[in-house]
Amino acid sequence: MRHPPTVSYSIILTLLGFLLPISVTAHNLPNLVVTKADQEIWLEEYLHYAPDQEGQKNLKDFLQQDSLVSSHSRSLNFGAEGITLWSTFRINNLSDQNVFLVIDYPLLDSLHFFLLQDQEVIKTYTTGSHLRFNTRPILDNLFVFPIPEGQYQVVLRSSAKLNHQLPLRILGNQSMVTKVDRIDFLQAIYIGIALLAIFGSFIIGVMTRTRVFFAYIGHLIGTAIITLHIGGYAFQYIWPEYPIFNIYEPAIFGLGIFSTLFSMEFLNTKEQAPGYHKAL
């Protein structure tokens, strides 16, 4: 009689070790060592977190928590669950100058940064897209926090109702300058092309008296504002003193209606597809 093949328990445990998150305490976190000013390090191997379903915990509660969950991902993503998230990592900055914690997602509603040394809080920042832009320690389209030379524990408390993402990386001083120059340059090219298209469409629309060009202008403006908002540039350059626009974020994405209006004009749905035209 043939017996079904058996699988070694050691193999099963090894596979589970890769598939399941690993829990640690706040006292035995792995240490990230930064030695060069041009380093770029994603924190998936060093970041640990704990969701706060009720949003009632404070820093002391988090530091006393029995276990934390390992990230193993470049970006924590909790979607629209509306939870508060506590996350932490240890860093030893040996680069003789500031390094920077960069959060590559600018639409966090609230964000608290705690820098601890020997279990004592030595620096805190409270910012987020629901607060004025000048609450950020570094006025960048992304959330950027300086970390001086030395050994520290960094703790973050973040929340977002619509889309809670937390992609974290450490940039050295030189890498930070390169990042700013590269991203800002690409964004400037995009805005320049959009402005040329808007100006050209306006001229042609006036000369031909064709409504589709003015609908196209609305589409370009709406898409440009949405793109700038997602990248954090709208808050940085257009309404830095008015975070209320970020609070009512769905209204910003509602500008996409201009793309629908342009499509209706361009495809002439009123005559070609009246049923779809009424639905739109």
Give a description of the structure.
- It is built from 10 helices and 13 strands.
- The protein has helices spanning 9-19, 59-63, 173-208, 211-230, 233-237, 244-247, 249-253, 257-267, 269-272, 274-279; strands at 23-24, 31-34, 40-42, 48-52, 68-70, 75-79, 84-93, 99-103, 110-117, 120-127, 143-147, 150-159, 164-171.
- Strand 9 (110-117) and strand 10 (120-127) form a beta hairpin.
- It is elongated, with a radius of gyration of 24 Å.
- Mean pLDDT is 85; it is low at 1-21.
Secondary structure layout:
Elements: H1 9-19, E1 23-24, E2 31-34, E3 40-42, E4 48-52, H2 59-63, E5 68-70, E6 75-79, E7 84-93, E8 99-103, E9 110-117, E10 120-127, E11 143-147, E12 150-159, E13 164-171, H3 173-208, H4 211-230, H5 233-237, H6 244-247, H7 249-253, H8 257-267, H9 269-272, H10 274-279
Parallel strand pairs: 2-7
Antiparallel strand pairs: 1-5, 3-13, 4-5, 4-7, 6-13, 7-12, 8-11, 8-13, 9-10, 9-12
Summarize the structure.
The chain is elongated and about 70 Å long. The protein has 280 residues and is an alpha+beta fold.
Number of helices: 10
The poorly predicted ranges are 1-21
Which structural class is indicated by helix and strand composition?
A: alpha+beta
Mean pLDDT across all residues, rounded? 85
Largest sheet: number of strands, sense, barrel closure: 8 strands, mixed
Give a count of the beta strands, DSSP E runs of length 2 or more. Answer: 13
Query: How far is the N terminus from the C terminus?
Result: 68 Å
Radius of gyration: 24 Å
Give the fraction of residues assigned to helices: 25-40%
